[in-house]
Amino acid sequence: MKLVIDTNVLLDWFVFQNPDVQPLITALQAHHAKWLATQPMLEELDRVLRYPLMLAWKPDWGMIEDLIKTYVCLCPVPKETAPALCADPDDQKYLDLAWTEQASRLLSKDKLLIKAARRCHLQTSTYL
């Protein structure tokens, strides 16, 4: 199963330890899922993790780095765009990667991104 994971879902995992993320963690650990990401996605995650609000949660940087090294399948930035545009241009990269790599699912909490993904007939959900 190929997954593209939006930053908000990753924050639930890396910062807030939301138990709803556990099925995703289990799938990755069992190698039943691959986390697809591009360098710009990882840069966005790093930037968001450094927001003052996130720093107040004291993220475990070593753990986050290890999880990224262990589970990310780094993909090139797609040259092709998905057939639908996301209302938020910053989120287009998730849609384009899910479309180009024919991801099994795009995990996101962002309503505009989910709406655009559905216009592309991509499977979406917040968590697994």
User: Hey, roughly how much beta strand do the residues contain?
Assistant: 5-15%
The end-to-end span amounts to 11 Å
Radius of gyration, Cα only, in angstroms? 14 Å
What is the global morphology?
Answer: globular
Helix content: 40-55%
What is the typical, i.e. mean, pLDDT? Answer: 94
Strand count, sense and barrel status of the largest sheet are:
5 strands, parallel
CATH architecture: 3-Layer(aba) Sandwich
In CATH terms, the superfamily is 5'-nuclease
H/I helix tally: 7
**Low-pLDDT ranges:** none
Fold topology:
Blueprint: E1 2-5, H1 7-14, H2 22-29, E2 34-37, H3 39-49, H4 52-55, H5 61-71, E3 72-74, H6 92-100, E4 105-107, H7 111-119, E5 124-125
Parallel strand pairs: 1-2, 1-4, 2-3, 4-5
Explain what you see.
The protein has 128 residues and is an alpha/beta fold. The protein has a single domain (2-125), classed as 5'-nuclease (Rossmann fold). Helix content is 47%, strand content 12%. It is built from seven helices and five strands, in the order βααβαααβαβαβ. A five-stranded parallel sheet has the order 3-2-1-4-5. Strand 4, helix 7 (111-119) and strand 5 (124-125) form a beta-alpha-beta unit.
What tags apply to this protein structure?
alpha/beta, 128 residues, five-stranded parallel beta sheet, globular, Rossmann fold, 7 helices
Short note summarizing the structure:
The protein has 128 residues and is of the alpha/beta class. It is 47% helix and 12% strand.
